[in-house]
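Course exercise 7: structure representation. Students receive a sequence record and must write out the corresponding structure in token form. The form below is the worked example handed out in class, using argininosuccinate lyase (543 residues). Read each field label carefully; the graders check that inputs and outputs are placed in the correct fields and that the protein name is recorded exactly as given.

STUDENT ID: A-19
EXERCISE PROTEIN: argininosuccinate lyase
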Amino acid sequence: MNNHIFRLKSQVLAIMALSLAASIAQAANTGEVACKTTAECEQQAIKAGVTAKPVSSKATSKNDEKEDQFYWLGKINKASAVMLTEEKIVEPQMGAKLASGVAYSLEQSEKPDGKRPKDVLQIEKIITDEIGPDASLIHTGRSRQDMYATYRMAKLRNQVLDYSDALNTLRTALLAAAAKNVNTIVPAYTNGVQAMPISYAHYLLAYEASFARDAQRIHELYKRMNLSAMGTAVLANSSWPLNRERMAELLGFDGIIENSMDSSQIAPSDVSLEATGIPSSSAIRLGVLLQDIHTQYHQTRPWLLLDEGSTYTSSAMPQKRNPGVIMRAREAASNVVGLAQTVVFRNHNVTTGMTDYKSAWDDLGLFPQAIKMIDSVNTVMKALNVNAKRSLEELEDDWTTSMELAEALQKEHKIPFRVGHSFASSIVTEARNNGFKPKDFPYDKAVELYTKALQKYKLPEGKLPINEAHFREVLSPEFMVKTRVGTGGPQPAEVERMLAESNKRLDGDKAWMQSTRDKLAQADKKSGRGLYQTEGFCRSISR
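STUDENT ANSWER:
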């Protein structure tokens, strides 16, 4: 009995101890826990759930790698010191003190033992250790919410621009290949069946035009993306008269996301969804282009091949030349589509203000994967060889030009198209049943079938009005391509015109990119080397 009571008391005491521990447990304040290295700071933030554990390198360029979360929080701290002083929220002397603390936090990060934490409070502690508790004034009217929303939009901006540059390299490669293949005649397919002959340049220009539309989408997106959330605190602004427009200017944004709740709680969702949709759409079209090339490897005599140095041999079968670079590029494209869908799922079915959707594209490394995809496709394009003789032979082995026969009868001899279509179809059936090709189909048989077509439609009897020489010419793939008319067709003159226009459009898009980057660089130079330098800053706010 006594043992039972003892065990019962022990259990009660254990429960009370656990309850007491739970009652005194507090949320982790990362600003109050010292960390000696960047890695230690990061582990503390990860443990508290402030930041996610990184899964891979997520930079799209050296510039994107440089402008990490620490970089942007430092930039926001500099802008805050300036704005708070200009708006007389802090006195000039205090502004100078804050500026010196911010400058110290940045300077120490460049040293071998320096720290570059990602968390706001960890950075504030570095400033506090230098200038004392006044450091917290830098956080006047702010929150992690508006700061992180601003950083994420800036990072999204960087990565979208890097993707735009990569996309322009692909367009350049496609146009260069098109210029070499204006007169290369290849089959075009619909429903998986040979449809009509076109030039390979015409084919490539069609894809380039679709990627030019992606560039237009990026230009439109940029107007909605290059806006600042700073100054909205958590989501409803603060009681401090912060100058949001000035903060946006200092940080290199074109303006602000006006609604304070939208800025950090809604815009991160729809703007990032729009942004990730662009490389996802590109990836789907690139997958088709790659499949068109890869399908050729089913042929015993392909007309699209890679340089042998860009293939690899089988370990067992001597004849094989495996197109690994195509498969790697297609895998990358599939990864982009999958990651973009994951971004959608992360945005789906969450309540407002959750973190799930705010940086999904960054957590997943979608844009680095998208740039890898473009680089892989460029590798394929560089290795691509087109056998014009073989592609023409493929066309001449089939009846892809039979529609031209019906059109010639209508255009030149007023024969109703449906009659001509029936006549041409009967020729194709006869040819396939007896192994004839356009070059060797018996002209006498064509005359006979024409008579039957007239009878089928109860038209007066008459001789086939196209002589044998013209009959052969009409069935020639080169003739069909050269005689196309109308804007956007595969005829060489029109392809040359479209090629010139595409190059002009690409030059314009590259100029937009250069202008956009120059504007960002000028804003950064203005803020980083002038007003934000500690001595210059002190002089500017002391006036």
